[in-house]
Request: fold
Amino acid sequence: MSTSLTVRPSWQVFCLTPQLQSFYDAVAKMKAVKDPTNPDSWAYWVETHRANCPHGVSYFMAWHRGFIHRFEAKLRELSGDASLVLPYWNYYDTPAIPPEFLDSTSPLYRGDRTGTDVTGALSYDAFADTVIRFQRGKSHAFETITESRPHNLVHNLIGGAMSSIRISPRDPLFWVHHANIDRLWVAWLKAGGGRKEPLPTNTYWSGDLYYGPAVSGMPRVWTTDTTTYLGYRYDDETMPSPSTSAAMAASALATSRTPLRPATRVSVPFGKSRALSLDEQSMNVDVALSATDTARVRSLMLQPAAADATQDGPVRVVLDGVHLTGLGHKGGYFYNVYLNLPAQPGTGKAAGAYLLGSVGAFEISVAQMKASMKGMHGMPDMAATPASQGHGTRLVFPATEVLQRIWPDNLDKLSVSFVRVDGRKQPTKGVVMKVDAFRVEADPSM
Reply:
């Protein structure tokens, strides 16, 4: 148990200290070691993440807290600087990639990044007053929402290695990104207002976290807070909000004045499938409902919410046979998927009320990994199973809760919008994602 605390600063503070050179030195040393079984090598940590990281399942945040803590200790060891800590990238304040990561002479540089700004990833959903539960499987759970947004979306917009779960730690941005996700967990819990995680004595924290054969594991209970066992805190442990994040407040204001739903491009009958190709343009899919379909959907909307938030729900948007093109694998984009998004902003609900989830290169890489592993449970907001037809993977976006939230007066159709978000002002044009079979389906009404 630690008796003194180290302080992890923001990158903007850290880059002005002598520890920046220590960080450079440690990263360069690790990249020079080519043996992936040696924890002194960068490759060891990439492989450990690929083989063990729990994405879309419980302990996503706990595992990564321990992972970056062990990595930080290795940086300190290799640099010989006892004061070296892992900084965090506070993209809620500075959403552009820090310049030190863009210097081609620096060990922090990667030439495969396709985005330079993550403003479009910065959701505040996890910090709402209604998000008071921590663990996955509960409705409105902090871990679930934070992993989806901003975590996944930041991966998407940076692109390159960061857009694939299998190799994302190759990019040094991975580490300062995950330090920030860790900081947001601290800030959320510290904010109070009924926010809580299971008590350290709860069996939820039983068991250990594994970090490969050459690095010590960690009891899960050690990750319940950063101070008791891990010995660190952050220089800023407050939750972000649009009122305190100048860049996002300006972005939100601009967004509120622009059209929401893209022009209709394609249509499909309810319960039927059609192929889709997604490119740099946003797309709207109108799903026509017959009178019988409308009655069935209305009936399902009256059902109480499922107790298990990991279930798909009785009404869902299904994407079968999802696969990326060569351009799509490069990342730098994602699509927010909305249901019945208004064509123009008004005085009613915010766009987030219509949000089903998001999909980009990172989510697809996670879905593919989960589909290849037996015994893994799907994500509450986007489940993944092997594709039922063609090649690619299968994504499911539960839609019942959104329908209950927006309660549309007119149900002659459902409109599913794929709204493109990019990590740079001038995205590359071309198809990035193909879907063998898109459809909206529902269980039989009761």
Confidence is low (pLDDT under 50) at residues 253-257, 374-390.
